[in-house]
Amino acid sequence: MMILFVCHANLNRSPRAAEVFRFIANEKKLDVEIMSAGTQAFPIFNSENSKKAFGVEKTTQLTNEMLEKADYVVSMDNDVSQEIKEDFQIVPQKMITLGIEDNFSLRKNNLHNLYGILDQKLRPLAEEVSLSQRKRPNKEIL
Length: 142
Hints:
The protein has five helices and four strands. By secondary structure, the protein is of the alpha/beta class. The two termini are 19 Å apart.
């Protein structure tokens, strides 16, 4: 199962959401692939200054192929969800909008708050994924 996290630039919210969900998935022993991307992840964001400022190695531009592959698309806010619907030929069936606006700076307290909000909002998704994986028949038995 693939879960795709999407924000505007893929610099702050979606990479952090992927990181938090990866932690939760490991904790719950979920079998998931996790990716993050941005609707406007311009190459300029991949400069050394951006890497130092945001702590992100490389931004990733959202593509139709990613949307096709994703079982869940987790959008950070309504604007991102609208961009996905308007700019891409594929509208994911399982799109979740978290409602986390793009107003988190990288100051310590802001990041701590962002991680807390993400943990709270992503745990229900992890539970849904866990339930769906428990319902799948074991391939070894078939």
